[in-house]
Amino acid sequence: MESRLQVGPLLLADCAIYVETNDDQFAAVLRWCFRDLMPESDQQPLSVLHRFEVLRLEEPFSRWAIWRDGEVCQLTLEEGYVLFHLQWEFNRVVLEQRSATVHSAAIEVNGRCILLTGTSMSGKTTLAGWMAAHGAGYMADEIVAIDDRGYALHYRRPLGLRHGGPLEGLFSHPEGIDRRFDSYEMLVPASALGQVSMPDEPIEIGAIVFPRYEPDALPQVVPIARSLAFQRLCENSPGLMRNGRSVFDLLSGLVHRVPVLQMSISDAEGAEQLLRSSLNNCGVGS
Amino acid sequence: MTSTRQFSADATPESHPSVRSAVFDTDEFCVVLFDERANRLHRLGSAASAVWMLCDGETSVGNLVDELIQLLDLPPASTASDVQLALNDFWSMGLLVGSPEPATRGGSDLIEADRVLARPPDP
């Protein structure tokens, strides 16, 4: 019988996740990528458990497959995509567990959570990672859950980085980590970016920022109507489609309450300076 | 197929209870709607927003037109027909009591009437 390796628990959205795999190199990658989701030693056990099996299969052809709690997720994954897909399954767990969610990254600046919201390739992950490497707290990437008070909950998943981006110079993969699994996208734990703080408690949302990556543009803050910001936030809210009016009202209250900014960004350092000065001008956290 | 309807002057259009509104009136006047049945967002222009706010089941279409002419300083000659267009869009999208169920699911759009009634430009 083939041997299985277990990685976990990983803690996300009040769930304990265990991953079993038959590939020791994949297990090592998981331990590195998801290390920020691993509990402190004195963490209380959680009652909601999910078990993923991620197996390398050779018959009738070479491929990878993922099961969640015994049910098939995918049976024909390419090697370079399996890690990315597993992360997506983790995101799904968060979406199932939390009612109000937005497609955003989240950082903590001056004691307030800043939502970086937008479509793919808008620069939100890069900006979040850069800010975290330069003194901001890291809260979440891709999915941010918001509680009834308008506080953001942390989800310390690894940052999804494309090859050749500005964060590549800020970290290095540990020796021996197999790079077969990141040909599609690199998953990098925020803690690999240096001494990154990661708040434990929910943090009140202080601003909503819509970054827009424009490589030839000067970094600048562009006004955005609150109604348009609200529409975009709703369009980027998986929770709205699942839970309807309660999320609509929550997001509406949030957009009415906090500053909303749209930023054109071209480089990470310029974007950081612009964001910090803009937040100061808005009095966020001061 | 799009459903249309001519609203008489004494009709009292009413927003459907499944449609949630968020009103933005600080630096702009805009209503964003969310239809729970269709999971669909609608961001209205300022004039369409004003029409929507008066779809309370009590204000008649005749009074609605009069109020808009006064509130927004609109030309009387075209306002009545523009209001008909807005109400028709609300109706065809299933946003009013008694209108057909919305057919589409997901996404967002602008109420068609915003092509006619003044829509605030995106900054």
Overview of this protein structure:
The complex is a heterodimer of chains A (286) and B (123). By secondary structure, chain A is α+β, with helices and mostly antiparallel strands. Helix content of chain A is 29%, strand content 31%. Chain A has 7 helices and 15 strands. In chain A, α3 crosses α7 and α4 (226-235) packs antiparallel against α6. The longest helix of chain A is centred in the N-terminal third of the chain and has 19 residues, at 79-97. Chain A is globular and about 65 Å long. With 123 residues, chain B is α+β, with helices and mostly antiparallel strands. Chain B has a 4-stranded mixed sheet with strand order 1-2-3-4, covered by helices on one side. The longest helix of chain B has 17 residues, at 76-92. Chain B is globular. At the A-B interface, α4 and α6 of A face β1 and β2 of B.
Output mean pLDDT of chain A. 92
Arrangement of strands in the largest sheet of chain B: 1-2-3-4
Q: In total, how many beta strands of chain B?
A: 4
Mean pLDDT of chain B: 82
Q: Which residue ranges of chain A are poorly predicted, with pLDDT under 50 across at least 5 consecutive positions? A: none
Q: Report the order of strands and helices of chain A.
A: EEHEEEHEEHEEEEEEEHHHEH
Total number of helical segments of chain B? Answer: 3
Distance between the termini of chain B: 34 Å
SS content category of chain B: alpha+beta
Strand-residue proportion of chain B: 15-25%
Order of helices and strands of chain B: EEEHHHE
Instruction: Report the sheet with the most strands of chain A, covering strand number, pairing sense and barrel closure.
Output: 5 strands, mixed
Given the helix and strand composition of chain A, which structural class is it?
Answer: alpha+beta
DSSP summary: helix tally of chain A:
7
**Low-confidence segments of chain B, ≥5 residues, pLDDT <50?**
109-123
Which descriptor suits the 3D outline of chain A?
globular
The shape of chain B, in one word, is globular
Rounded radius of gyration of chain A (Å): 19 Å
Our estimate of the beta-strand percent of chain A is 25-35%
